[in-house]
Amino acid sequence: MQSKKKQVFSDFIYITYLIFKFFKNKFFFIAFKWPQEATVLLIEEYRSRQNDFISGKMSQKKIWLLIAAKMLKHGYKVSGAQCLSKFSGLKRTYKAVKDYNKRYGSGSRTWTFFPVSYFKIKML
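User: That's the sequence. What structure does it adopt?
Assistant: Structure tokens below.
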């Protein structure tokens, strides 16, 4: 448990560093076109931090910042708010496809991220 706290603290320090670095260079987050790899990474990061969202020990804003920092480590320049917005859209689409298929047949609509392997997470 202690190592997880150290990791969270380390991630938080890294995020703070990046924010100061970007604002010092007058870098502002702009519109981001989400490639499939970035979307999959976002889903995986959400899945890995799902217990943090549920526990309430950390603010959701801070968790989304940690996810954004992980995205940045992989070369995707997105903010926590952009991650939240994208994930909210993914949840809406997932629910819409699931409801449509439930109503009109299981093979009616498909979606790249619909397979159970992507969304074996509790949809908050």
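The first helix runs from residue 2 to 24.
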